[in-house]
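We read letters as residues; the integers encode the fold. Take this protein.
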Amino acid sequence: MSPNSDNQQSAAARHHDEGRAPSPIELPPGGADLLGFTAQADLVDFEMLTASAPLAPTLAQRIDVAMLAADQFARFERIADQLAAQDLVLVDTLEPYREALDAFARATRARTWDTCVLRALLVNGLRADFVAAIGDRLDDRIAALIEPGPTAWRITDFAGRSLSEALEADPTATGALSLYGRRFAAEAVGQIQRLVARQVEFTSLVARAADSDDAITSAGDELGVVSELLERLMVEHGKRLARLGLGT
């Protein structure tokens, strides 16, 4: 099935679900923060995909990117609807994460098509690894809201194929893309560390969900678990670059 037909089906599914307001769910301490972080990340990813569309080398790819961006915004809307069901103000819930995620977007903004698709691959991979690390210990409905889902997999499939085509057309781009991958990791670590230092309940929820040994007894333990999680995420990031032929 072509990317266009996949995207058309997802658009139809969104239309079918319109008007179905979600019911409130019981959020643990930090639950609203996790949803706010995820929604802000979805919003930034939508903006990055939209900005990359004019760089697409073909009209078909440009259309695909636009459809994928629409799917990404639909993910944002699902969390926005849930926050409304919780009587939470959308912008207030997202605001604590705006500065860090916008700074990350500025620092990793892609200027070429091959960098755009690499960024999409790396962002989706990082977010999938994060959710995999914490999702099993979250309430099922919260986990369902933050999981990457089919949209992320469609983006990854499209970006992977597009990157392969770009590298086949210009193998000399490998060096610049490898450097970009390292810069991406450094910026991700820096911004996550800033968030961890400021957002106490978010940090606590992530740490306790990532701590499979139930060994946390203090805020210091929470920071330690998050640091270990961040290290694991960066290891997986390095493996991802290596699989793409962009390792050091």
